[in-house]
Design brief:
By secondary structure, the chain is an alpha+beta fold. About 40% of the residues lie in helices and about 15% in strands. The protein is rod-shaped, with a radius of gyration of 53 Å. The chain starts with a helix and ends with a strand.
Length: about 375
């Protein structure tokens, strides 16, 4: 009879599952009224089991619903709710799990739920939850150096090499010893923008290569011609009718300096522009750097100045007005009665002339008696 009486009240029990404390209280009263303490214990056990089954059913329903709507409840290990945005604030209550997101710099509560899965599904529906899911999906496992190169090749991207510690354009080794020591940076709107930190330099270079700045830098490098050899640079200068100006410096050419010996492009081309030194680039050969300088307006002006100076040195000085031009190698006309006297030629002697010989005595020192020694010569 007592079980029959309890069965009468079971349909009403299912409607009270939303409030656990009230359900337990009513269940105890029903058991006492039905027939004693044994039935009361049976009702309490039934209540606990029913509550647990209901929680499991709600969690099971939440997962397929999230999959149907392509929602991803994000698992989180750093909170007590087990999911992103889910917190266990009221254990023991009918709805102990709170769904919460960060919106506009403030924490916004989305409600309390009976299960963590249901609260996680509520978070997954929000823009914050969807953004977090997209961000986590984009953040794949760290790529090795070889995997990053293969991925760049698959995406037809170029990992730009640079002369820095990391070896790649836009990649900097600023935290050695840490799990992600390489930082990817680009220059955007006049500011340095960080693209993230990575475990390998190649993965950071791949991130830079995917950015608009990285694609622009790759296109610019591709447009630049291959380095010219010394002979090719001379031929190109001749074809463009340019002059590679020689200078007395280490490089041997005007506007060219040997800045980084040992590197792939050791020669630097610079010109003086507006009172400041302007860098034109770095080159593999000194002739290519001299060709770059020769193409600049400053290089053309310097070549024209040297050409004008060379023409000025080779031309005869201007002749004043009224002056006569005297040619070298011509003899002016001789006046009447003049004659040319040649060296080592003796003129003819008159008939009554004679030759007189005189004795010349030369005194020398060093005689034994102290008197000067004389020697006669003719």
């Amino acid at each position: 009879m007592s079980l029959d009486r309890l069965a009468i009240f079971l349909p009403f029990v299912t409607t009270l599952l939303g409030r656990r404390k009230r359900f337990l209280h009513i269940g105890v009263q029903l058991g006492v009224l039905a027939c004693g303490p044994q039935i009361c214990s049976l009702v309490c056990r039934f209540t606990r089991n029913a509550w647990s089954l209901w929680q499991q059913s709600m969690a099971t329903e939440a997962r397929p619903q999230a999959q149907t709507k392509k929602l991803t409840p994000l698992v989180a290990a750093d909170n007590n709710g087990g999911y992103f945005g889910v917190h266990l604030n009221n254990p023991g209550k009918p709805k102990p799990y709170q769904a919460r997101v960060r919106r506009g710099g403030k924490k916004v509560s989305l409600g309390n739920f009976a299960t963590a899965e249901e609260a996680a599904m509520c978070v997954a529906r929000t823009p914050e939850g969807q953004a977090a899911a997209a961000e986590r999906a984009a953040a794949a496992a760290p790529l090795t150096s070889e995997e990053a190169r293969q991925q760049a090749q698959a995406e037809k991207l170029t990992l730009l090499v640079a002369e820095n510690k990391s070896g790649y354009f836009g990649v900097y080794l600023d935290s050695p010893g840490k799990p992600k020591p390489y930082q990817a940076q680009v220059r955007r709107d006049g500011k340095t923008v960080s693209l993230g930190r990575f475990a390998t330099a190649e993965e950071a270079a791949l991130c830079v290569a995917r950015s608009p700045e990285g694609r622009a830098a790759a296109a610019e490098r591709a447009a630049a011609a291959e380095p010219l050899t010394s002979e090719e640079a001379r031929q190109q200068a001749q074809a463009e009718k340019l002059t590679l100006l020689v200078a007395e410096n280490k490089a041997g050419y005007f506007g060219v300096s040997l800045g980084n010996p040992g590197l792939s492009k050791p020669y630097k081309a610079t010109v003086q522009r507006g009172g400041k030194m302007v860098h034109l680039g770095r080159f593999a050969t000194v002739e290519e750097a001299a060709l770059c300088v020769a193409r600049s307006p400053e290089g053309r002006a310097a070549a024209a100045g040297r050409a004008a100076a060379a023409e000025g040195q080779g031309a005869p000085p201007a002749v004043p007005s009224g002056a006569s031009l005297k040619e070298e190698g011509t003899v002016p006309l001789m006046p009447p009665g003049a004659f040319i006297k040649g060296e080592a030629v003796v003129p003819p002697m008159p008939p009554d002339a004679f030759v007189k010989l005189e004795d010349v005595v030369k005194e020398e020192k060093g005689s034994p008696d102290g008197r000067p020694k004389r020697r006669r010569t003719k």
